[in-house]
Amino acid sequence: MTKTVLVVDDEKDIRDLIAYNLSKEGFAVLTAGDGNEALQKLADHKVAVVVLDIMMPGMDGFEVCRRIRAKETIASLPVIFLTARSGEADQIIGLELGADDYIQKPVSPRVLVARVKSILRRSEMPEVPSMQGENSAERVDVDGIDIDRASYKVRIDGSEVFFPRKEFELLYFLATHPGRVYSREALLNRVWGEGAYVVERTVDVHIFKVREKLGGRGEKIETVKGVGYRFVS
């Protein structure tokens, strides 16, 4: 089935160039010139991935991403920031908001298309890639944290807490391998997949969000200084 990409940028020439190259690769493409139009397109259409500029008049890309992540029906939608802003602080903000990738302009159309395809391959994997062949447990219940792999749901002391896909996969992986320390690189490879276009800082951001949602049980994910993270059962 043809996948739809939403391209959001306030510069028409850039929208048209990206749309042309994605269309050549068989994608259906929607475009939006600002944040409000982008959110309306997401409400009206089934979109597989969003390519999102940051600097736009009115609602900027950061706010658009924040609203996507806050709406449960589209919270797991892959978002790729495409921006002229090159500062590390901006990249960290983007990752903290849950972006799946962060690409600096200018970028060749071929590279952008490759990154879109890579994001889609990872998002469409039916099961957590890192778990295949390692642990067949469909449900893990440890110290009041109930993780249901079949439904991608987490309950803490009986109350359901929403975890977007990557946060769920990270929690599930660590919880099913208690006591073992994993480096950031290892977690990237096992949860995001080898060859993922993301930086190690992404792991730290997701760990922070998982701990936050676990509340008082956030300390079960322990930082091993200079090494990585482990789940303490």
Report on this structure.
The chain starts with a strand and ends with a strand. The chain is elongated and about 55 Å long. Strand 10 (221-224) and strand 11 form a beta hairpin. It is of the alpha/beta class and 233 residues long. It has helices spanning 12-24, 35-44, 61-70, 88-96, 109-123, 165-175, 184-192, 201-214, and strands at 4-8, 28-32, 49-52, 79-83, 101-104, 139-142, 145-148, 153-156, 159-161, 221-224, 228-231. A 5-stranded parallel β-sheet has the order 2-1-3-4-5, with helices on both faces. The chain has a 4-stranded antiparallel β-sheet with strand order 6-7-8-9, covered by helices on one side. A two-stranded antiparallel ribbon has the order 10-11. It has 2 domains: 4-123, Response regulator (Rossmann fold, 3-Layer(aba) Sandwich), CATH 3.40.50.2300; 129-231, Winged helix-like DNA-binding domain superfamily/Winged helix DNA-binding domain (Arc Repressor Mutant, subunit A). The chain has 8 helices and 11 strands.
Structure, briefly:
This protein is an alpha/beta fold. It has eight helices and eleven strands.
Main-sheet strand order equals 2-1-3-4-5
Count of DSSP strands = 11
Structure class:
alpha/beta
The helix count comes to 8
User: For this structure, what is the CATH class of the largest domain?
Assistant: Alpha Beta
Point out poorly predicted stretches.
126-134
CATH domain topology of the largest domain:
Rossmann fold
Overall 3D form = elongated
Mean pLDDT: 86
What is the terminal-to-terminal distance?
43 Å
Strand proportion, as a percent range, falls in 15-25%
Instruction: Provide the domain count.
Output: 2
Helix content: 25-40%
Write the element-wise H/E pattern from the N-terminal end onward. Answer: EHEHEHEHEHEEEEHHHEE
Largest sheet: 5 strands, parallel
Can you tell me the CATH architecture of the largest domain? 3-Layer(aba) Sandwich
Write the CATH homologous superfamily of the largest domain.
Response regulator
Evaluate the radius of gyration: 18 Å
